[in-house]
Amino acid sequence: MIDDDALPAEVESAGGKTAPVAGHRSCPVRDVLDRLGDKWSTLILVTLSKGPQRFNALARAVPDISRRMLTETLRSLERDGLVWREVTPSTPPAVRYGLTPLGASLMPPLTALIRWAEDNQPRIAAARAAYDARAGKNGPDNRG
């Protein structure tokens, strides 16, 4: 595997301009997909697209997420500018989360991707099964 730190961040093109090297962690597509491709971010964003939620409501709405992982994911989404956090002083403090305008702008392409995945997952599963049958294997972990 290639270490991203060993790659140059940019290369000079023929016109003298610099461009990010594909595969380097400064790549904007990779940066965004790393966030959306983690286990919980997309589920949390879709849940918040229905409206602001308190922490405990989010914990109930996103199955199997631990409170620690929910907290970490919300912090990352807030850091990325996709989610806002509002603390109302009370005992105990009430904390609500919602989508920022940037987070809301992500929902149309994310919803289209989710729809595509739902529509095509049976075909993908069939293609995997056919591949595994041709290769005489039970799955991707049994490569020869």
Can you give a write-up of this model?
It is a single chain. The protein has about 140 residues and is of the alpha+beta class. It has helices spanning about 30-35, 40-50, 55-60, 65-80, 100-135; strands at about 10, 20, 55, 85-90, 95-100. It has a 3-stranded antiparallel beta sheet. A two-stranded antiparallel sheet has the order 1-2. Strand 4 and strand 5 form a beta hairpin. It is elongated and about 60 Å long.
Rg estimate, integer Å: 20 Å
State the helicity in percent bands. 40-55%
Beta-strand content bin: 5-15%
Q: For the residues shown, what is the average pLDDT?
A: 84
How would the global form be characterised?
A: elongated
Task: Enumerate the spans where pLDDT stays under 50 for 5 or more consecutive residues.
Answer: 1-8, 11-15
Based on secondary structure, the structural category is alpha+beta
The strand order across the widest sheet is: 3-5-4
**What's the number of extended β-strand segments?**
5
List the secondary-structure elements in sequence, H or E.
Answer: EEHHEHHEEH
The biggest beta sheet is recorded as: 3 strands, antiparallel
Q: Number of helical segments?
A: 5
Distance between the termini: 19 Å
